[in-house]
Amino acid sequence: MEPVAIPQAIDDPIHILLWSADEIVPFMVCMLTGMLIDHFLPALAIGLIAVKFYRRFRDNRPDGYTLHALYWLGLLPSQAMTIPNPYIRRFLP
């Protein structure tokens, strides 16, 4: 079992029970999907495995990589004026 990470600085990610806020998303998605399709326990097991793989994915990449990938795929919408449309790949003068 992995040790529980205790936040050491004010800008450390928020922890909910044993996971950080970004690690709980795959678990909750699997759990809610399992509730909808009436296969709760297998979905919980898949959710725990998904969290393990996501943690391994996240720890081998720089901070903010997941948010950048979501923006690049167009899954992180923003109405800000300074953030360009993610589907525009080339900017012409």
Topology overview:
Layout: E1 15-16, E2 19-20, H1 21-36, H2 40-59, H3 65-73
Antiparallel strand pairs: 1-2
Provide structural commentary.
The protein has a domain at 21-73. The protein has a two-stranded antiparallel ribbon with strand order 1-2. Strand 1 and strand 2 (19-20) form a beta hairpin. It is extended and about 55 Å long. It is mainly α and 93 residues long. The protein contains three helices and two strands.
Alpha-carbon Rg, integer: 17 Å
Strand order of the largest sheet: 1-2
**Annotation field: number of helices:** 3
State the secondary-structure class: mainly alpha
Which consecutive residue ranges, at least 5 long each, have pLDDT under 50?
none
Give the biggest beta sheet: 2 strands, antiparallel
Tally of strands:
2
Mean of pLDDT? 86
What's the helix-strand series?
EEHHH
What is the distance, rounded to the nearest whole angstrom, between the alpha carbons of the first and last residues?
54 Å
Q: How much helix is in the residues? A: 40-55%
Strand content: under 5%
Shape: extended
Can I get a quick summary?
The protein is mainly α.
Keywords:
single chain; 93 residues; mainly alpha; two-stranded antiparallel sheet; 3 helices; extended
